Amino acid sequence: MKLKTMAMTGMMSLAGLGLVGAGAHAVFTQNTVSSQQITAGTMNVQLSTLVPGANLSANGQTLTFAPFGPTGSSFTTGDELVTITNYSNFVVSEIMATPGDTYDSSGGPASPNSLLAAEAYLCEVSSSYVIYNGPLASAPAQAISGSLAAYPGTGNTDNYSVNIYAGTEPTACGTGTTGTTPNVPGTSTAPTLLQGAQGGVINPSMTVSYTG
């Protein structure tokens, strides 16, 4: 009995060693990592002008020219130059110029305000290009192309001028039509205001949109 027990013990020990030998292996592992920090820029496009009496908002994004008039039946506000500066830390693209006009139309289409709005003309020029020259009331939003470089640097400014007029007056557009390049300043051929527009008040505006 004693010898038999010893033999079985030896067999169990050998079997145990076999199991240990079969599972004793290693697998090498390694990780590689690539990463990148991404920071969103801040869009900051501002306006400025040398036109006397103009008022600029605190954020530089709204420019209001001084009230003009009273006018006669033939008038021009003059080519009021606006300078656009991109203070963003990335490039922005100019995409749309949208004329607008607000006034009290409660008196109906025959009221002085409505008649003045219908009879006033708009000349808009940018970089020697006539964006629009025609009746203010029918001025559409115009797609514009171009980009402003990031600040600081060169190429981060652009400009446009706006002139509201009626009658034969000097403008940057002259007799040029929308899309004329280059613009040739000259005398307009728009009709003068009619009698009913006397005393009318309008508030034209220009919005230039950007993407970046």
Notable characteristics:
alpha+beta, 212 residues, disordered N terminus
Provide a descriptive summary of the structure in words:
By secondary structure, the protein is α+β, with helices and mostly antiparallel strands. The protein has one domain (45-211). It is 14% helix and 32% strand. It is built from two helices and 14 strands, in the order αββββββαββββββββ. It has helices at residues 2-23, 112-119; strands spanning 45-48, 55-56, 63-64, 75-76, 80-86, 92-102, 121-126, 129-135, 142-143, 147-148, 157-166, 170-171, 186-187, 203-211. Strands 1, 4, 5, 7, 8 and 11 form a six-stranded antiparallel beta sheet that branches. Strands 6, 9, 10 and 14 form a four-stranded antiparallel beta sheet that branches. A two-stranded antiparallel ribbon has the order 2-3. It is elongated, with a radius of gyration of 37 Å. Residues 1-20 have low confidence and may be disordered.
